[in-house]
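Comment thread on ticket #2218

A.B. wrote:
> Attaching the input chain for the structure job we discussed in standup.
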Amino acid sequence: MVIPVRVEPLGDQAVLVYLADEPAAVRFAAAVRAAAPPWLQDVVPAYASVGVFFDADLVGVDEVVQGRQPLVHEIPVCYDLGPDLGLVAARLGRPAAEVVRRHTGTEYTVYAVGFMPGFPYLGYLPPELCGVPRLASPRLRVEPGSVGVTGRQTAVYPLARPGGWHLIGRTPLVLVDVADGFFPLRVGDRVRFTRIGEAEFRRREGERPSS
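C.D. wrote:
> Ran it. Output below, let me know if you need it in another format.
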C-alpha cells in the first residue's frame, strides 16, 4: 500500500498528493486509476507528486483529502410494502418475484446525492428492470425508506417528501437524521438490497445501517 506524505487542495476540483519518492508516485497514480471512483476525472503524476482531478458535483475536496474509503451498505427491503411493484412487473412483462430477485441481485453504486438531504441516486439497474418511467402524477407524500425505480436508476427516499418514482419496496432503516448530522450514504459507496418480510420490517423499524 502506498502511503501519501501529505495531501493538499489544488483549487476546488483537484488535490495534490505528495509521495516519498518518484516510484511511489507512479505506483500511487496507477492505484488511483485502477480504483476508478466515479468522481475521478484525471490523474497526473509529476516527479514525487500526483494531481488527482475530480468532479466537484460528485465529491467534495474535504472527502478526497481525508481519503475516505467507499463503504458497502446492506439495506433490507420489504417488497410487500411496495405499492407499485405490481405495476412495475406488469410494465416490464415479468413476474413480481423476478423483479425482486433481479433488484436484490445487483450491487449498486451511489453516483450522486441530491434532490433532498441524503437521497442516493443508485446505478445501474439490470437491463431487465430498465425503462420504467416516472409516475404521470407524483405522489404528494412518499414515506421514508421507500425504494423507487425509474429509467436506469433506483433510490431510497430517506425522508417524507413528494416523489414521482415507482415504489417497489420499503426499508425499515433510518438513512438520514438531519438534526444529528447522520448521512451514511456517500458518493462512491456501494449498496446491496436484501429481501425481508413485513414482520422483520416492523421489528427493525427505526434502525440505522450497521456500516
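A.B. wrote:
> Thanks. Noting for the ticket: The first helix runs from residue 22 to 35.
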